[in-house]
Amino acid sequence: KNSSMAETSLSTPTQCSSLRKNGHILIKDFPCKIVDMSTSKTGKHGHAKVHIVAVDIFTGKKHEELSGSTHNVEVPTVTRKDYQLIDIEGDQLTYLDDDGEDHSDLKLPHLCDADLELAEKIKDTFENTDDADVYITVVSAMGTDAVKAFRLVK
Fold first, then answer.
1. CA 35 to CA 152: how far, in whole Å?
2. What is the distance between the alpha carbons of residues 29 and 49, in angstroms, rounded to a whole number?
């Protein structure tokens, strides 16, 4: 897509013990948001384990990971950007980037049930609002871009 995405690595190795709730982690190549973490006591071989419960940032699917607290895990690079929505054709979105160029490489949200509700709200709002612009929030991680929110800007 744009050059800044290509330069940023998709994920960074991070020591497990430095992760925090609401932070991000890569579990089985899925970018996830950490919803719960617990550390077990040091075992007889001297290694504490960290149990992580996280949800996929795109689908909301739950994933779990057990890792040694001193081990490295991958943390995905997650970015959020807002773009002005200028057209909806079927499920294809046309939006303006920061330079005012129009793009049609995004679809209405469709990765989970919450996305389908969001897609309906975006369509309704876009079709029934004349006095404000609709901005979509695009979340990007691991080479995937998905619309996860929208807002009105007067």
1. 29
2. 21
Average pLDDT per block of 10 residues along the chain, 154 residues long:
55 95 97 96 78 97 94 96 96 95 96 96 95 96 96 95
Three-state DSSP class for residue 98: coil
Beta bridge partners of 135: 84, 151
Residues 6+ apart with CB under 8 A from 16: 50, 52, 67, 68, 69, 70, 71, 72, 73
Question: Which residues lie below 8 Å from residue 71, measured CB to CB, with a gap of 6+?
Answer: 15, 16
Determine whether 6 is exposed, middle or buried from the number of CB atoms within 10 Å of its CB (0-12, 13-18, 19+). Answer: exposed
| DSSP H/E element including 1 | none
* Residue 41 DSSP symbol: P
Closest CA to 35 of 61, 4, 11: 61
Residue 94's contacts (CB-CB under 8 Å, 6 or more residues apart) are 85, 86, 87, 88, 102, 103, 104
- Sorted by sequence, the CB contacts under 8 Å of residue 51 that are 6+ apart come out as 37, 38, 39, 40, 64, 65, 66
